[in-house]
Design a protein that fits this description.
With 360 residues, the protein is α/β, with parallel strands linked by helices. It is 40% helix and 16% strand. A 7-stranded mixed β-sheet has the order 2-8-7-6-5-3-4, sandwiched between helices.
């Protein structure tokens, strides 16, 4: 670490992506990053080809066309929508706008590991509230800490467990919080949950009602555009304006904007994705039951699986079979398995059975 860099950087853990866990081991079955098993929409690919003529020009800085399309779809004014280089970039911008060394962020744990990182980069404090016994956010305990918080994050459905909190539970949670708290609802996997659970809440509803809620969504998952890095934020206009003040110019490329606009219109591709994911998720749960392994009831495009032995060890064994999954935090026995194609799930099953046999 450069001694002239900010001292806080010595304490901030580097984010480790799913592929970095492979550490140079060749893997062709990539089930570590919750990507779309069908890839991008054909309409998005066509839009990318058409967009090539404009690549020498800077992109539209405020993503006006995409923001308008999202606003129309969601029933909010365009001033309530921001677009960024993935929902993670927008999360970091929210932290830059609302956190400093005098402020507090509250989140659940285990959850998306980038939440405490963005707070730490702002030298803010974090309270991480353990999940309840069903792998879900313990909203009452989170509310107990929220009175002192500037930002509270609810990952719904939760990454890595795939569980969710219901509409009624989240409504009751919001009712308990002081007015000044900004509640960030991360719905990166929300499309999968809406298809799987009738009582899954639509966070944008609370934005329309004027609540102090900011909803994060992405084109990386159900739309299959992870490599283009485009996500969006739906929030009160004053929150969006604060985020825009700290956002660097031209953050979202022209190809990303064009592909996202086209992907929004491809309802057939989304429907096929949801079907493939639902079938694959069921297959992974069934496999876990057959092998006597634990899972939580996921509504996302991944399954959190208790493999009954050190997660890092099992993940390394799977890599030797060319299969990459995401191990849980060090010292745990859980791995997160993305839903892949039927063929990829078959490869995972064979590798898992071989690894468990070798271990046991």
């Amino acid at each position: 670490m450069d001694p002239q860099a900010r001292p806080i950087l010595r304490e901030v853990p580097a984010y480790v992506s799913g592929r970095r866990h492979a550490a140079g081991v060749p893997c062709d079955v990539l089930l570590a990053s919750n990507e779309n098993p069908l890839g991008p929409s054909p309409l998005a690919l066509e839009a990318l080809e058409r967009a090539r003529l404009g690549w020498a020009r800077y992109p539209e800085d405020d993503c006006a066309d995409l923001r308008q399309a999202l606003a129309d779809r969601l029933g909010v004014p365009p001033a309530c929508v921001a677009v960024g280089a993935g929902s993670t970039a927008l999360l970091k911008l929210l932290a830059e706008a609302y956190l400093d060394r005098h402020r507090l962020l509250v989140c659940a744990w285990p959850s998306f590991p980038y939440y405490p990182v963005v707070a730490q980069l702002q030298e803010a404090r974090t309270v991480s509230v353990p999940l309840d016994g069903q792998g879900r956010h313990d909203l009452p305990r989170m509310a107990d800490h929220a009175a002192a918080a500037s930002v509270v994050v609810v990952c719904n459905p939760n990454n890595p467990t795939g569980t969710y909190v219901s509409k009624a539970e989240l409504e009751a949670f919001l009712d308990r919080l002081p007015d000044q708290v900004l509640v960030v609802v991360d719905e990166a996997y929300g499309e999968f949950a809406r298809a799987a659970a009738a009582d899954y809440p639509d966070g944008v509803r609370w934005v329309r009602e004027g609540r102090r809620v900011a909803v994060l969504r992405t084109f990386s998952k159900v739309y299959g555009l992870a490599g283009l890095r485009v996500g969006y934020l739906v929030a009160p206009a004053e929150v969006v304006e604060a985020v825009r003040r700290v956002q660097e110019p031209f953050q979202v490329s022209s190809p990303a904007q064009a592909a996202a606009l086209a992907a929004l219109e491809d309802s057939e591709h989304v429907a096929r994705t949801l079907q493939v994911v639902a079938e694959g998720r069921q297959r992974l749960h069934q496999l876990a039951r057959q092998l006597g392994l634990g899972t939580y009831p996921s509504v996302a495009n991944f399954v959190w699986m208790d493999v009954r032995r050190p997660a890092e060890q099992l993940a390394a064994q799977l890599m030797r079979h060319g299969v990459l999954v995401r191990p849980g935090p060090p010292g745990t026995t859980w791995v997160r398995v993305s839903v892949g194609t039927p063929e990829e799930i078959g490869r995972f099953e064979d590798a898992l059975r071989a690894a468990l046999g070798a271990s046991g």
